[in-house]
Amino acid sequence: MSEYSISKVSPDDKRSNQLIDQLLLGEGIRRDKNLDYTCAMFDEDFNVVATGSCYGNTLRCLAVSSDHQGEGLMNQIMSHLTEYQFSKGNSHIFLYTKSTASKFFSDLGFYEIVRIEGKVVFMENKRRGFQDYLSRLGENKKEGKNVAAIVMNANPFTLGHLTLVEKAAAENDVVHLFIVSEDVSLIPFPVRKRLIMEGTAHLNNICYHDSGPYIISNATFPSYFQKDETSVIESHALLDLGIFIKISESLGINRRYVGEEPTSQVTAIYNEIMKERLPEAGIDCIIIPRKEAEGTVISASTVRKLIKEGDFSHLTALLPETTIRFFESPEAEPIIKKIKEAEQVIHY
To answer: In this structure, is residue 119 part of a structural domain?
Structure first.
């Protein structure tokens, strides 16, 4: 075992962060944009010989200098980060790694959830974590000839979202609606979930599910070992679909409904991959044209932009009555303030 020291690196420690960036680049890794804790291992001359970071309950940007590989340094970095996660109350930990490194992390007690060969492996520290999640979902299996799914963030729930759900509900025996529970949106998960359920309460064939830790947003998918933004989007789509296909097998889902997104490069690429890959798994991919209002497509981004600008008069054309009632209530005031203070409310 080495005598090197491991310590937290603060964002304003310019020297250490520069050394971390150099180490990561040397190992073919770019610093991920989503990090909330970083540590480094220093030698006796205060050079960085290994590093690792966290975002929420995920481990990211793990690297050991090529001059020191084989010395067991990554084991120590992993132990440090795991202790940090436990101190934050996170016992269920996830990581993303290159396909070539997955065996190493398997030996450290991580288990494969899904693999996109040549791109990325998604892993967790619970042997039956994902299987138990699928088993819990399976308890809500409903029989039907046509069983559909929708995955929705709804930040916030708009008339466009409502149109998509109503169409799926009208055309299928059962609709499993997965609400992205990852809480990184301007509108908190409990509010998003409530607005979705209130807005669709008139439909009697909807099964609501929290997405849990297995369905994540593109905004927090790690980009650090992808060569460019398109590769990041493609990797996220393929990984997400790998997980969704396993979920579909548990619930008997044979259709997935998604909204067309003419203004979003991310969603356009995602939809193209979905259209190609889902039928291979026996799942129809049904892309619905976006509902329009006042000559433009309805989007949650537009709603957030109007709120940021204080233009509430145009929201009635974009939002169901249940969502409007929420934004008119005192409960919404802190969220409206947060949206107005946000630098960026449009997602591309």
So the answer is: no
On whether residue 111 sits in a domain, the answer given is no
Cα–Cα distance for residue pair 14/12, rounded to 1 Å: 6
pLDDT tens figures, 174-203? 999 999 988 777 899 999 999 999 999 999
pLDDT at res. 294: 78
What Cα–Cα distance (Å) separates residue 150 from each residue in 17, 189, 254, 329? 41, 17, 12, 28
What is the count of structural domains for the chain? 2
Task: Provide the token pair at 259.
Answer: 């909204």
Question: What residues make up the domain containing 19?
Answer: 5-91
Q: Which residue has the tokens 């974590």?
A: 129
Selected residue with higher pLDDT from 241 and 227: 241
Pairing type for strands 174-179 and 206-210 reads parallel
pLDDT of residue 233: 79
CATH number at residue 229: 3.40.50.620
**DSSP-H helix ranges across 91-228:** 102-107, 129-138, 159-171, 189-199
- Residues 58 and 177 placed together within one structural domain of the fold: no
